[in-house]
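hiii so um. not sure if this is the right channel but i have a protein structure encoded as tokens and i wanna go backwards to a sequence. like what aa goes where. can anyone help
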């Protein structure tokens, strides 16, 4: 976490609260502007560097990623969502594949149900 950016954000909030009370301090405003310059410079430097340097991230297999089911405590409503998902997709979740053999022979935008395909009676 960039503490300098957090510092500036908190001082901006304080500045806004002071402005609501009708207090405007030019010295405080200029001090905040001076503090803002460093995070801005860091952001622009990182942006320019990202355009020229290669991006690199360590690869790890899917099983090493932490997913919600592997969490110590699943989120609230996890069991209900899981059951609803099973009911919705238990049977017929692959029905869309019936349309593929027929649809790929038709022009784009035309959808012909599987049972209307010539030579198919199922």
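sure thing!! here u go:
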């Amino acid at each position: 976490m960039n503490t300098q950016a957090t510092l500036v954000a908190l001082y901006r909030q304080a500045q806004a609260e002071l402005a609501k009370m009708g207090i405007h301090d030019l010295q405080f405003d200029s001090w905040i502007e001076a503090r803002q310059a460093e995070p801005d410079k860091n952001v622009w430097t990182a942006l320019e560097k990202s355009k020229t340097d290669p991006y690199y991230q360590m690869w790890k297999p899917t099983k090493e990623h932490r997913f919600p089911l592997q969490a110590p405590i699943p989120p609230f409503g996890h069991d209900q969502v899981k059951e609803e998902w099973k009911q919705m997709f238990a049977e017929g979740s692959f029905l869309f594949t019936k349309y593929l053999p027929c649809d790929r022979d038709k022009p784009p935008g035309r959808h012909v149900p599987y049972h209307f395909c010539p030579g198919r009676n199922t």
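oh and The chain is about 50% helix and 0% strand.
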